[in-house]
Automatic annotation (TrEMBL):
Catalytic reactions of this protein: alpha-D-galactose + ATP = alpha-D-galactose 1-phosphate + ADP + H(+)
Record-annotated site: Transition state stabilizer: R30
Segments forming domain Galactokinase N-terminal: 11-60
Lineage of the species this protein comes from: Bacteria, Pseudomonadati, Pseudomonadota, Gammaproteobacteria, Enterobacterales
EC number: 2.7.1.6
Gene (name only): galK
GO molecular function annotations of the record: galactokinase activity
Positions of the GHMP kinase C-terminal domain: 282-362
InterPro entries reported for this sequence: Galactokinase (IPR000705), Galactokinase_bac (IPR022963), Galactokinase_CS (IPR019741), GalKase_N (IPR019539), GHMP_kinase_C_dom (IPR013750), GHMP_kinase_C_sf (IPR036554), GHMP_kinase_N_dom (IPR006204), GHMP_knse_ATP-bd_CS (IPR006203)
Keywords: ATP-binding, Carbohydrate metabolism, Cytoplasm, Galactose metabolism, Kinase, Magnesium, Metal-binding, Nucleotide-binding, Transferase
Protein name as annotated: Galactokinase
Family of this protein: Belongs to the GHMP kinase family. GalK subfamily.
Binding site for substrate: E36, H37, T38, D39, Y225
Principal EC category: transferase
Amino acid sequence: MITELKQRCEQRFQHLFGYAPTDFFQAPGRVNLIGEHTDYNQGFVLPCAIDYQTVISCAKRQDNRVRVIAADYDDQMDEFSLEEPIVFRESAMWANYLRGVVKHLRQINDQFQGMDMVISGNVPQGAGLSSSASLEVAIGTAIQHLWQLPITPVEIALNGQAAENQFVGCNCGIMDQMISAMGKADHALLLDCQSLKTESVSMPDDIAVLIVNSNFRRTLVGSEYNLRREQCQQGAAFFGQPSLREVSLESFHAREAEMDPTVAKRVRHILTENQRTLEATQALNQGDLKRMGRLMAESHNSMRDDFAITVPQIDRLVALLQEAIGEEGGARMTGGGFGGCVVALLPAHKVDAVKAAMADRYFAATGIKETYYLCHASQGASSC
Ligand code: GAF
């Protein structure tokens, strides 16, 4: 798949700019195995990078102009000068990810000049698989390599998050950019979102990562996401702490009854989800799919009952997958919520049987047909 994206970027570059690109870079989307909404609470997440990517072909320029073509948006071009303030473009949303990354990068290191780029990708958009983070990280990686800037993958991830928070206006946490920048082939990554320390967790070939798109379009995702952030912040403030990372389950249980009931539920999800994420890391390290499946089911129930970020269509899809998979493995909603994708882990040899068992059961229940992406835990951003 990456070969096709590269060819497309190379061909469009040559055709539209009239010369050949010098370099190619890629950054992947991600699927989160467990640890949802814990990142902005300074907690733990366990995502893996997937083999769906954003690819960039590029070349340095001798002046300060930046020209970028979005091959997937009818070759639309964005062009601006590094000598002028970089401003938000209402008419082309895709261009703001690029502009935001460039603008924030210049605040860390401005030792780069203009460049020409062509971008193309195959991370499904609006499905909760982090197409925007992969775009931000791909651009950051391209600039870093092209101009040999002394900045690390963690800084590229933080820069992507800053662009998204402050320029694009989406208040996301750090998980998506970190896994896109730091992913390791055949591994998931336990990420401590407080220290930004990572630990690779092996994903053996005999465990399949099956992503199932509910094709239920996410709505409310922005406003509800921000509301969950506020409620978690209220929870931390109730305990007099800067974040929920500093709150233990014991102190929560001791004072739960005094709390606003909605805030208490949100806090319970975060605290138990952190614990499940650490347990899931152990389970995966031991190749224990049964335990992993139980933890995924508990995580889904917690997102449904305590964090209230699932929708009936997703709950149905998860229940059908859990039934089809049985005890060896499991399924849960993945990502920000309110629609999007479900992630399933199962023995690789059972994938066809599980898909066959699903038949048209989801369609019969919801009137929507699901889409499957069988993924491989992949390498993070790199030249390609
Ligand atoms: C979205 C956000 F971008 C992430 O930072 C994370 O909070 C996730 O939702 C929920 O776990 O993908």
